[in-house]
């Protein structure tokens, strides 16, 4: 059996000091394999972003282990984390692409920068930037534009392209489609499915069960910092075991929300009964 790209074991994270100290993650254990998408769902404050940030070395852990491609990175110092992030084995995409992209850099500069740092020639970096845009189904016309000059959906696709520059084995996506309209949402989800098929491991964070249901192989449910349920997506949706998961499934906004289109509701129903 191949080693999972990401192994999280009994992970604990605390915020604050002394009397203000609060536990944000309680003994979280989760594996993500190459070519697998794990959807991480849970209400606001349940610890989803904390788990993402811990996996990227952006918050200190207070217990447990994190292994990336079999390498124990838990006790890495900031310098080692920076090197790991720069090597680009793990990449991330945030809900707001302006957080993933430098607003002053053109699309071409954003995509070329990590390659230039790696010593790739300017000409080759330009060629690779075009190939990356093509991979996220965007036209090369966007290359000279800065993020403020393109649409939100295009921006998020550029953020995904930027995450792909270093050919990561793992991408953590924190609410990547939450700010997008449904047409752009579908397009970004399609791109993520293609990445998964190419063997990239994805952690897809969302509070929207509908988006997760359409892409995740497995779903992990966080509740108050604890993983209360992990299983195959269809099983978690159709036969939720934990009362909190049952509540999430029964209150899936796309089913309840009167403003959801008929097509959206039918799509989710089909997913639920698949
Ligand atoms: N920098 C911080 N300092 C102190 N407490 C924090 C910090 N970041 C998060 N927390 C707390 O940790 C808990 C988990 O927060 P986290 O942001 O991981 O939740 P989340 O599930 O991602 O929520 P959301 O869906 O709103 O983004 C919350 O109680 C939050 O208030």
From TrEMBL:
Pfam families: ABC_tran, oligo_HPY. Keywords: ATP-binding, Nucleotide-binding, Transport. Residues 8-249 form the ABC transporter domain. Belongs to the ABC transporter superfamily. This is ABC transporter domain-containing protein. It comes from Nocardioides conyzicola.
């Amino acid at each position: 059996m191949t080693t999972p790209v990401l192994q999280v074991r009994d992970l604990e994270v605390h915020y604050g000091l002394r009397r203000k100290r609060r536990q944000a993650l309680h003994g979280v254990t989760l594996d993500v394999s190459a070519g697998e998408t794990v959807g991480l769902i849970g209400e606001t404050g349940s610890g989803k972003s904390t788990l993402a940030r811990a996996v990227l070395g952006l918050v200190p852990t207070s217990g447990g282990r994190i292994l990336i491609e079999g390498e124990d990175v838990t006790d890495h110092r900031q310098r080692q984390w920076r090197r790991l992030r720069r090597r680009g084995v793990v990449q991330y995409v945030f809900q707001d692409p302006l957080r993933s992209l430098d607003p002053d850099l053109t699309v071409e500069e954003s995509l070329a920068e990590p390659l230039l740092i790696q010593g790739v020639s300017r000409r080759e970096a330009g060629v690779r930037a075009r190939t990356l845009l093509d991979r996220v189904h965007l036209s090369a016309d966007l290359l000279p534009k800065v993020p403020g000059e393109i649409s939100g959906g295009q921006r998020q696709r550029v953020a995904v392209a930027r995450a792909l520059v270093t050919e990561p084995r793992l991408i953590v996506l924190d609410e990547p489609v939450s700010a997008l309209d449904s047409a752009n949402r579908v397009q970004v989800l399609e791109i993520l499915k293609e990445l998964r098929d190419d063997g990239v491991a994805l952690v897809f964070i969302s509070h929207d069960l509908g988006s997760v249901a359409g892409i995740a192989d497995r779903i992990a449910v966080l509740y108050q910092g604890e993983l209360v349920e992990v299983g195959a997506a269809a099983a978690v949706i159709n036969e939720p075991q934990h009362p909190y998961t049952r509540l999430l499934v029964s209150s899936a906004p796309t089913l309840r929300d009167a403003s959801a289109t008929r097509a959206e509701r039918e799509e989710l129903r089909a997913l639920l009964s698949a």
